[in-house]
Amino acid sequence: MGNIEKKDISMHYDFKEIEKNWQDFWAKNETFKAKNNSDKPKYYVLDMFPYPSGAGLHVGHPLGYIASDIYARYKRHKGFNVLHPQGYDSFGLPAEQYAIQTGQHPAVTTAANIKTYRRQLDQLGFSFDWSREVRTSSPEYYKWTQWIFIQIFNSWYNKDTDKAEDVETLIAKFSADGNANVNAVCDDDIESFSAADWKAFSDVKKQEILLQYRLTYLADTEVNWCPALGTVLANDEIVNGVSERGGHTVIRKKMTQWSMRISAYAQRLLDGLNTVDWPQPLKDSQTNWIGRSQGASAVFNVKDHDEKIDVFTTRPDTIFGVSFMTLAPEHELVSKITTEVQKAEVEAYIEATAKRSERDRMADVKTISGAFTGAYAEHPFTKEPIPIWIGDYVLAGYGTGAVMSVPCGDQRDYDFAKHFNIPIPNIFEGVDISEEAHADKDKTVIANSDFLNGLPYKKAMKLAIYELEKLGQGEGKINYRLRDAVFSRQRYWGEPFPVYYVDGMPQMIEKEFLPIALPEVEKYLPTETGEPPLGNAEVWAWDTVTNTVVNNSEINNSTVFPLELNTMPGWAGSSQYFNRYMDPHNENEIFSKEAIDYWQDVDLYIGGSEHATGHLLYSRFWQKFMFDKGLVPKDEFAKKLINQGMITGTSAFVYKVRFEITQADEFYDRDEVEKFHAELISNNPIFISKNLVDKLLASDNPENFEFLTRKVEGKLNELEDLARKKFPKVEVLRVELDLGKNFLMPLHVKVNYVNASDELDIHSLKTDDEFGEDFEKAIFIGEKGEIIDGKNDVYKVGREVEKMSKSKYNVVNPDAICEEYGADSLRLYEMFLGPLEQSKPWNTAGITGAHGFLKKLWRLYHSGAEGAFAVSEDEPSKDSYKTLHKTIKKVEEDIENFSFNTSVSTFMIAVNELGAQKCSSRKVLEPLAILVSPYAPHIAEELWKQLGHEGSISTVDFPKFEEKYLVESSKEYPVSFNGKMRFKLELPLDLSKDEIEAAVMAHEKTAQQLQGRTPKKVIVVPGKIINIVG
RNA sequence: GCUCGAGUGGUGGAAUUGGUAGACACGUUGGACUUAAAAUCCAAUGGACAUUAGUCCGUACGGGUUCAAGUCCCGUCUCGAGUACCA
After folding, report:
1. Nucleic strand B near CB of residue A793 (< 7 Å)
2. CB of A395 nearer than 7 A to strand B
3. Residue A3: which residues within 8 A CB-CB, separation 6 or more?
């Protein structure tokens, strides 16, 4: 052998060599390391934090990363100091579930997964500043998550200043005036106390009271408990009444949990949406989630009791239509007011509703159920008695958990009243309510309502509130659907709380002793006594003398105390990571003032829309909190946000024909015969090609089936022989095609065995490691109807767009694409597929277009002998200049508009044109390389180097567009007759309207079109179009 | 049910203010090169009729505005996403 010819890199487009070289170069030179100070303006481009899953990336995942990378690279060319970091949201359920099953420590699996992720990200050529990488599961990082938790704990929300303040200011108020004049967001059931009371309270009592005000607090809450996962879930982690992860049942349960008082920020979270450039659907879903509604609270006294029922209503104008009250079954008054007679019924009802899971409750919304308490409330105006019911259509968690039921104006109240035969008084003028409630507000006039008679909705509403306030039995009120967020998880693989307990009261650990590291445990399941997994830790107690974590055996509750056993939820680590990236290795502060003052906020944030009501809401909440504390300069962390669409898969199907065996089975054991048949059929499948499928489905012409039967006769006979050998005593034994209704069975096959023409590689399928055996004896009938044997025919698969998933065998791994076509091709193709925000199907076949483009691009710079690098110093032709500047203009506009798909087309057009022009001028090819560089950075760097430049292309100035190269002297006008384009006419652009009209009318084709008619009108839009009407 | 978003060739998609519908790419068909294949290059490619010149239809469907509508207005249908007893 000896001399294997070493190919000159300049000779052909060797993407493997090029991509590897430049990835090494970038890493070695830290090309994309961002400085925290610069004369350049800053720009912060961020991708949503990835969870490093075990499965690695498929081609759908990098879509957003490619877009953000293009934008980041573009901004560098435009003279910005760009921050483009990446890291891992590495706490999470999958690693823990794996740990439970295998005993493998989640840290080990997580580290391995991160390694795979990193390799996959690196091979795509992203311009991340890896020196800033963070991992939420590393103690250096979660130290600051714990620190933020402490800050939140030490804060309360002052409604007077409308911001979070230190609890010290609250304590000062308590000491001075008690709590009567404190205007705070806090628990509802707070007793009032004077300054003297406060001073007299025990220490524990004071702590208890403060907990009711803190922005994160410990309280008995109705939580969403998921028994299968063994943990509570936040509202956004439940989809359709089951857990988002795994789809497990969720039930309501009362538990002591940490909660975040996000409800304090409801209005500001709503208002902030108007200040950010985020997609409207995302804003809409946050708006819905926060669920602001304006109305009034009204107080109804309970007859023969001291109790009051506080309700929230959006329709105080309908207060005279109240004919009953409904309380949620969980409402605290229920047990107090229920009469002896009704007790049994009410208790039975409460028990029945408590048992139902969230999903059950949601599933039968239509079933009306409830019970009468026997008690009556008093109408604030008429003083009439109103029966009090309970019903599970009233939610304990919304408003006050009680409603004033106005059946004539609310469909749910109406249905409930109908079902239980409760009167339905009509308080609307001229409205028929015999069939359904009248929920319309506009054009509604109130009647039968005392002082509200004759008033329209808006006026009645104001007056009703005024009168309620006068009575001291209500006031105008705004209510939010947004609940406080449960912040405890009964899990191992999450941030430990920096909390220990003294007399049952939570105490924060001082900042200088953080982080409190996750302890080692024997097993990752809850303890036998039902405590969270940290209950298994042996070294999990806090020594207040040494300020260290010590063995549980040392707990004495005087100096050594038990630590918190819950961990923080998944969103804890991702709620401030974007700020930590600004100064990720700072050991003394979460980030320095200089860093945050320089970077300010995220300029562009790209990620999936699935985070709308989770991460993106919690992050905004924490940001606003940090803003209140003066820690960050902006109260919204991301100016612009884009949701990239999903890439779906294009599944491939083969079609199995069913066939049957008819026989007499009286000589043999039935089960045995059936088993044999089943095996015979599954071992000898017959597949028919796509067009035969279409033919058979299109008509019930029996000839098509006969044709098919003839084709497979040989095989059927062979099977019959096998069957006869096995069961010789059977005389009638026939194998034939099943021509019944479902004669076809589509089966997924791996998409990588299908080529661009949808032809199946049968040989590879049959030798597949996983499924080869299933197809070994299979017969494939091809497009022409031939049994495939070598190259006599081809088998075409059917295709269908489905979600990319392992079970559908349509997952495409970027590693394989990079291997065959290179990262630059993959990047271009992903962008070329369609608009970023839209979801679109992946089909590997199309990548040849992007790859072909790169080869053509390469050839432009390699027009020398045998493809050697060659550019000329000659002045480019006018056409080449025009092509270049047209491209600069379009690409710049496209990137600014995030329309990456159209700029790829633009590049293709440019290269096609320059190729046709035989352009090899440096003056065109140099700027072209820069234009392409954000999209296909490796090839651009290589070309830049060959053009004779030192160093990276990445910060070279973006080419400047010059209008003068596009100025034209003439235009090819489309000439339309009655709006239909008939021919084209080249005319100078400096002609006046009249001159254009004259030129067109003089044209022979015009006469031909008009055929002697006189046009009624001639429309001329100079530079655009000519339309002749007549 | 409610709230958004979208319907354009065989496929992904383009069309900037209402102004040449289908750019660009895949696929398909034919051709060149080759012993052959791959690669590459050239040509055609919305449909129907005519196969020279042309004509008609065509952006989910039905109306409307306009010299001109994929684009604007009204109504209908279909699909997708989010949300779901929120008083």
Report:
1. no
2. yes
3. none
Helices (H), A327-410: 334-337, 340-355, 358-363
Inform me whether the pLDDT recorded for A671 exceeds 50. yes
Q: Which nucleotides of B are covered by protein (CB under 7 A)?
A: 3-5, 11-16, 19-21, 23-28, 40-41, 55-56, 67-69, 80-87
Angstrom distance (rounded) from CA A371 to CA A357: 20
3-state DSSP assignment of residue A524: coil
Instruction: Tell me the CA distances in angstroms from A883 to A877, A886, A910, A922, one per residue in order.
Output: 10, 5, 6, 14
Residues 683-702 of A with CB under 7 A from strand B: none
Task: Tell me the CA–C1' distance in angstroms for A804 and B59.
Answer: 29
CA A613 to C1' B59, in angstroms, rounded, equals 36
* Distance separating alpha carbons of residues A1018 and A1030, to the nearest angstrom: 9
Pairing state between β A292-302 and A371-378: antiparallel
d(CA A805, CA A801): 11
User: d(Cα A388, Cα A323) in Å, to the nearest integer?
Assistant: 9
A292 vs A744, residue with greater confidence: A292
DSSP A369: -
pLDDT, tens only, A553-581? 999 999 999 999 999 999 999 999 999 99
Residue A1025 Cβ under 7 A from any strand B atom:
yes
Whose CA is nearest the C1' atom of nucleotide B82? A285
Say whether the CB atom of A1016 is under 7 angstroms from strand B.
no
A902 touches strand B (CB under 7 A): yes
Confirm if A908 and A916 have CB atoms less than 8 A apart: no
Q: Which of residues 761-790 of A touch strand B (CB under 7 A)?
A: none
Q: What are phi and psi of A504, to 5 degrees?
A: 75, 0
State, as a whole number of angstroms, the distance between the CA of A77 and the C1' of B71. Answer: 35
Angle A922-932/A847-861 helices, nearest 10 degrees? 150
* A747 CB and strand B closer than 7 A: no
Q: Which helix (H) or strand (E) holds A907?
A: helix A900-916
Domains of chain A, residue spans: 40-141+578-646, 155-207, 291-480, 498-565, 649-802, 818-965, 968-1029
Predicted confidence (pLDDT) at residue A221 exceeds the cutoff of 90:
no
Residue A174: exposure state from Cβ atoms within 10 A (0-12, 13-18, ≥19): buried
Q: Looking at A460-535, which runs of residues are DSSP E strands? A: 474-480, 485-486, 499-502, 505-508
The complex's ipTM? 0.93
CATH topology of domain A40-141+578-646: Rossmann fold (3.40.50)
- The single residue listed with the structure tokens 């209950």 is A535
Q: Which nucleotide is nearest to A410 (CA to C1')?
A: B87
Please tell me the number of Cα atoms within 13 Å of A766 on its side-chain side: 11
For A15, residues 6+ apart whose C-beta sits below 8 A from its C-beta are: A821, A822, A823, A824, A825, A854, A938, A939
Domain A291-480 class in CATH? alpha beta
Fold of A968-1029: Ubiquitin-like (UB roll) (3.10.20)
Cα A420 to Cα A248, A369, A387, A389, A477: the distances in Å are 35, 9, 12, 10, 31
- Could you report the per-residue pLDDT of A248-291, keeping only the tens digit for each? 777 777 888 999 999 999 999 999 998 999 988 888 889 888 98
A280 CB less than 7 Å from any atom of strand B: yes
Which of the four CATH numbers 1.10.730.10, 3.30.360.10, 3.30.450.20, 1.10.540.10 does domain A818-965 have? 1.10.730.10
A801 or A940, which is more confident?
A940
Backbone angles phi, psi at A781, to 5 degrees: -105, 125
Rounded distance between C-alpha atoms, residue A393 and residue A349, angstroms: 13
pLDDT in tens, A61-90: 899 999 999 999 999 999 999 999 999 999
d(CA A362, CA A871): 70
